[in-house]
Amino acid sequence: MEAMAKQKDAEKEGLSEMLGVRVSADDLARLDALAERLPIGTRHAIARFALRIGLDAIERDPGVLLGGAVKGRKAPGR
């Protein structure tokens, strides 16, 4: 019964798609620690927020995926 209620809540929030992601033990521990500290919900809710924040950052500057490479910077001349 509880699973059905959670599914209906997710549908109300527009969460109709499923994504399975493997994470490291450290990442999971960080999510669990945040979930204990923050009253916003479960580690899954925090992961969704983190995904949205991260996607926004990547859309603004795709270079963040390359470890902070600076756009337009050229290698020094030889």
Which structural class is indicated by helix and strand composition? Answer: mainly alpha
Described by strand count, sense and barrel closure, the largest sheet is: none
Tell the overall outline. extended
Order of helices and strands: HHH
Q: Measured on Cα atoms, how large is the radius of gyration? A: 18 Å
Euclidean distance between termini CA atoms = 69 Å
How much of the polypeptide forms β-strand, as a percent range? under 5%
Total DSSP E strands = 0
Question: TL;DR of this structure?
Answer:
The chain has 78 residues and is mainly α. It has helices at residues 2-12, 25-37, 43-60.
If you had to describe this structure to a student in words, what would you say it looks like?
It contains three helices and no strands. It is an all-alpha fold and 78 residues long. The longest helix has 18 residues, at 43-60. The chain starts with a helix and ends in an 18-residue tail after the last helix.
